[in-house]
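quick q for whoever's on today - can somebody do inverse folding on this one?? i tried earlier but teh output was garbage lol. tokens:
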């Protein structure tokens, strides 16, 4: 089973070296595990490109079964922990960057006062990758932007987006800005998955912004705005306690997003994750 887990991690991160670091193996030891698995199965599972390690066509066919086996193995371990009681456990969460930065630290700190031996594993992704991780069992539950995700979600909180501008930008002198004022500016888009809530807001207003580039990381966007590469629209939650030299202004009319979470079926959730979800719902009013 450790070889299956090792293969899953190599595919996830696209690197033997990085996977070995994350799993606590040496790179040669992890390579030997994969080679041993390939010999046992009699097929080549992985090949290297110039940039990353990928599944072979044969590996692609087999990988869903391996993912299912790993998920079942972890489920068995969690059931054993449930039988022993919540003295330990692992909570695997798919999270958006703003949630992992501003929601999870206080929640995890308070939860571990009660359950100090529970371990957390966070996978940072977007509104495409997080639902897929929940579906395959890579995570127990995950946060999504309900404004761009159409599946079944448990609502947590609503927040506004803000316009983000270079300090010297003429619009920075205003108390608020409109989409009509932003549409002619070079626009930097934060990738949220297949859909972008700010781009949807422009579309709903009958506007088409001048998209200069798309970036997956919120804080890369802030650095680029600081250096005058363009303007952007980001969730207010992302902009808390930022040290970037930028101007942050409300939008008129307001553009909002609703945050919620999706999870495995309740009967498949590990006990530790059930406890944490319940704890989170009890404290959702305290979250920014």
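ok took a stab at it. sequence:
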């Amino acid at each position: 089973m450790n070889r299956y887990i090792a293969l899953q991690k190599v595919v996830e991160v696209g690197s033997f070296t990085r996977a070995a670091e994350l799993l606590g193996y040496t790179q040669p030891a992890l390579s030997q595990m994969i080679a041993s698995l390939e010999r046992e199965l009699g097929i080549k599972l992985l090949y290297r490109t110039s940039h990353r390690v990928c599944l072979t066509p044969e590996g692609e066919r087999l990988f869903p079964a391996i993912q299912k086996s790993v998920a079942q193995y972890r489920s068995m371990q969690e059931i054993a922990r449930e039988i022993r009681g919540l003295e330990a456990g692992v909570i695997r969460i798919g999270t958006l960057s703003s949630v992992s930065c501003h929601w999870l630290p206080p929640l995890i700190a308070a939860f571990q006062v009660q359950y100090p031996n529970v371990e957390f594993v966070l996978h940072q992704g977007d509104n495409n990758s997080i639902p897929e991780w929940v579906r395959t069992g890579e995570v127990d539950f995950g946060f999504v932007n309900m404004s761009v995700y159409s599946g079944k979600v448990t609502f947590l909180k609503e927040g506004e987006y803000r316009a983000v501008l270079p300090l010297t930008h003429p619009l920075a002198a205003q108390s608020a800005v409109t989409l009509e004022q932003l549409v002619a500016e070079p626009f930097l888009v934060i990738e949220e998955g297949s859909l972008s809530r700010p781009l949807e807001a422009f579309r709903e207003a009958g506007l088409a912004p001048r998209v200069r580039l798309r970036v997956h990381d919120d804080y890369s966007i802030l650095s680029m705005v600081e250096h005058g590469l363009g303007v952007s629209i980001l969730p207010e939650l992302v902009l808390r306690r930022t040290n970037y030299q930028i101007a942050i202004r409300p939008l008129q009319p307001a553009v909002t997003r609703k945050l919620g979470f999706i999870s495995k079926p309740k009967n498949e959730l590990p006990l530790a994750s059930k406890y944490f979800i319940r704890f989170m719902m009890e404290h959702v009013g305290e979250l920014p």
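fwiw Residues 57-84 form the longest helix (28 residues). also The CA atoms of residues 29 and 177 lie 56 Å apart. so keep that in mind when u check it
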